[in-house]
Design brief:
Tet_transcr_reg_TetR-rel_C_sf, single chain, HTH_TetR, Tetracycline Repressor, domain 2, DNA binding
């Protein structure tokens, strides 16, 4: 059975992002989230089973929007190079627009239980499939080396983007995250390029 959605559900999701970012997941009681959302404590339980369910739902909702936005940008008219740049740029832009969401996704979700991490990984699969498609297209068109290890390439794309955002947060947003999109995409493209070979 799917969750009940509606304005209050959205209010709770947005409140949860802010409360978890400000207090940390373990110090974010349901009562704090309810107060920030402007609803009674019991209202939370009409939409979510418990606090863990709130955290997973935050990631599910926000990652769903995230993936939709990226898919909308990655049209068939774009070259592989443009698609990779667009993916990196979109990732950085969406998190730079919501620093609290960046804190939740980069820091708070990493401290969760193995059970929670498994659910998070399941939600991430659709995003990783987008990267897989991009890598396959790059190899098929000769933009990427034909012997490129696809699983390792995907780890490099996601891992690089992820680490750059985390470092930006840990440096207290002292620089413009969006300005790093072009150099990050360029470095990945050079690393995957058909004319680039690792030394034996």
């Amino acid at each position: 059975m799917g969750k009940r959605k509606g304005p209050k559900y959205e209010q709770i999701i947005e409140a949860a992002v802010d409360v978890i970012a400000e207090n940390g997941y373990y110090n974010s009681q349901v009562s704090k989230i309810a107060k920030r959302a402007g609803v009674a404590d019991g209202t939370i339980y009409l939409y979510f089973a418990n606090k863990e369910d709130v955290l997973i739902s935050v990631f599910e909702e926000k990652m769903g929007q995230f993936i939709t936005n990226i898919k909308d940008e990655l049209t068939s008219r774009l070259s592989v190079e443009e698609k990779l740049h667009s993916l990196v740029a979109n990732h950085f832009r969406q998190l730079s627009l919501s620093r609290n969401l960046a804190i939740v996704t980069q820091l708070e979700l990493r401290q969760s239980s193995s059970h929670l991490r498994k659910q998070i990984n399941d939600i991430l699969k659709e995003y990783l499939l987008i990267m897989d498609g991009l890598i396959e297209e790059g190899k098929a068109t000769g933009v990427f080396s034909d012997d490129l290890n696809e699983k390792l390439a995907r780890q490099m794309i996601f891992g690089t983007i992820d680490e750059v955002v985390t470092t930006w947060i840990m440096n207290e947003y002292r620089y413009d995250l969006n300005e790093l999109a072009a150099p990050v995409a360029s470095m990945l493209l050079q690393g995957f390029g058909a004319n680039v070979r690792a030394k034996q």
